[in-house]
Every structure is written in C-alpha cells, then in structure tokens.
Amino acid sequence: MRKSRRSKPQAARVTRALLQEWPLPRPQGDDDKNARGSVLVVGGEVSLPGAVVLAGIAALRAGAGKLQIATCRSIAPLVGIAVPESLSLGLDETADGNISAGSASALSDLIAKADALLIGPGMKGHDGERKFVSALIETRDKSPIILDAGALDTLADSPSALQRFGDSSVITPHAGEMSRITGRSEQEIQDNPEEIAIDAASTLNAIVVLKGSRTYIASPDGDLFCYDAGDVGLATSGSGDTLAGVIAGLVARGAIPLHASLWGVFLHGSAGNRLAKRIGRIGYLARELLDEIPPIMNRV
CATH says 12-17+33-299 is which class? Predict the structure, then answer.
C-alpha cells in the first residue's frame, strides 16, 4: 500500500487585516521617549560597522524612544557620528577586529535598563564572538532578546541558551543560519520551512523568523504564520539587519515578541514593495527601507 505523505502545517498569512487584530502600542500625548522603550544593539566587527547602524536606525524608525549601540572600540566613534541619536559604546576588540569575549561585563548596566536587546548584526560567529554572546545572554535577567546574524551560531553550541526567557526571545535566521543551528541541510530547510520553523521554535523556546522568499514565523506554542508578499529586491546586503532592528524597536515599544515579529516582517516586506514600485524590483538599498517604515506603520 502506498504511504500517504504527512500534510505540511498550515500557516496563517500575515496580512494587514491580521495585524489590525493585534495593534501596536500607541503612545499617549504626554509620553516621553522613555515610555516608548530603549533598544540596545550589540554587534559589528571592524569590517562591518554598517550593520549596527542599519539595525539601530531601524529600531528608531519602528518607534523606539531610545537607542544604544555597543560595538568595537575603534569604530564606535564612527557609528556615533552615523547615528547621532544613539549612545555609542566602544568595547574591547581582538587583533582580528572582533568584539573581545571578555567585554560582556562592560554592558551589564545598559543590558539591565534595555527594553529590547538585539545581538548579532555585523557579527560572523567567530569562536570569541560566540563566547561573548553566551555571556551576554547569561547577563540578561529579563526578556526579551533578539538574536540575528553571527549571534545565532551561539545556539548551535548551546541550544538551551534561551530556555529561561519563556517565549519572549526572537531569532531571525535565513536557511544557511538555520542549518548551522539545527545541523540540517539547507536543502532540507528550503524544502520543509514550515516544519523546520515549528520544530526550532519548540526546541529553542523562541519565536523563529525563518527568512526566505516566503518567511515563516513560528512560536513555541505551535503558532505558524507566513509572509509571502515580499519580493526579490529584499535579498540585498543589510536587509536582515534592518528587519532585526524593526522587530527590536517594536518589542521595546511594548509589543509582545510574536506580534512584533509579524509586524516587523510585514513592514519590512511592504517597504520593499514600495521601493520596487518607485525604483525597480532590484537595485534599491537596505538603507532606503528605513524611511519607508513609519508611513506604512502609521497607515496600517
């Protein structure tokens, strides 16, 4: 007898109508910047200073009230000039231009005050960086945490690193990064993104934003969503940093991590669609996504 194939999990589509069921926290007329939350972005090798710049500005464009960026000491002044709205903190760095593994303790005060901690933009996942990220996660005594780019490799070493944060952490891997986390091949992940996303969310106890031509968002509780309205132009350098920053900014404002992830993916994709109409399907830059976020967010 021919065996029947197991049906794939059904994902709810991320649409404007869906998001309107979960509106973002609205600032009151007398709220100050502290009421909209503080984001701490940690990352950036010497060769990749722009990643934390994109992520930080994206967090502000998503409505966060305050921003701090921690990066390698030699590039911190440049980052501060590029993002004058942010505090820029320089961390000890290695001879290879990576953040030193022993720098985590220098961030304890900022971590304690942050409403959202984004780790990873501009990191490549070197051994020292993974130790640094592990130490940061241990330092964090409250949620939430967003892990992106090189910080994700830490989960391959320590799959239980996020367990104590409940379902309030977010990871934003593409297929290659998910392969390193799970040990499964990129092809398997591309063939079964729904199942991989759900399994990873349950195993890691985190919201999973599995990026691709269709982006799947899964929660540890088994919720599954799909955003399929993006276009090829979003596959550009710095685009993932921008998405991670938007999610962090929304979390800082008070959105629960699942809703922040759904809104973030939608805003990011819609920004790309607006640029595609104005500039072309390919050729726009990740930095150009930033200015599109507020008008889309306010309209929806």
Answer: alpha beta
